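Hi R.,

Here's the chain you asked about this morning:
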Amino acid sequence: MAIDAATVRKVARLARIAEPEEKLEGLAKELNGIMAWIEQLNEVDTDGVEPMTSAVHVALPMRGDVVTDGGDPEVVLSNAPKRAGNFFVVPKVVE
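And here is the predicted structure, written out as tokens:
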């Protein structure tokens, strides 16, 4: 996939990044280099390789599922911008 200055301009606009016109060609060349490197990675044989989230296997510590706060609604709701009784009032987000 070749990236040209028009594509860089479009992506910059979508990302709300202001880039001067004179830098677009240079950015297009850099992005084309990155895309070529990614294509090289696609050639690596990964059959039989397990997906991993870390280079080191570490088990995350588990904590007990115990209620530690929330017993006093007045304390919990003390910083609420709006409240109705013991509940937070939030703006409607679904039409």
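One quick note: The radius of gyration is 26 Å.

Cheers,
M.
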